Amino acid sequence: xKLTLVTIALTATLLSSTVLAATPIQLSxxxxxxxxxxxxxxRLNVLYGQTSQVTGINFSLLGLSTIDNxxxxxxxxxxxxxHTTSSMTGLEIGLANWNNNRAKGADFGLVNYTGGNFxxxxxxxxxxxxxxxxxxxxxxxxxxxxxxxxxxxxxxxDKSGTFVSKNLSIFPIINARF
Length: 178
Known about the structure:
The protein is built from one helix and six strands, in the order αββββββ. The protein is mainly β.
């Protein structure tokens, strides 16, 4: 009886990931994902890997991890770089955090880049967000436009102007707009 219940439980667990078209664990190596489905759980990327969607934890070891849509905790270990092409929601910690489109959450890295709207906080030596809603804290902070937010750093650049003047794009120490 116990063996039957264990067998049913294991079968249900294995089939549930197939039905939901997501896998709980994925190993991503250059040119191959094992297994190939979307991830709802844990993903380990070694050297280079690309996948469509991850919800959970992504570990990038010694290389570039590219994900189309990411929700969760993104960790770049040992020179790991986190790259999201469409949307990122969560916490990213890595050598570099590179979001092509929009991101919401927090980025901790030497370099943080968001090509679209960023909502949250960026902490790094260099931070860039095309549109900022939140905080940039670093040596050099840059944005095309602060919607609502603060830049704190040695050099703060806002293409649309600073709180002092719309004609002044660079301001040291602090810049803000509310």
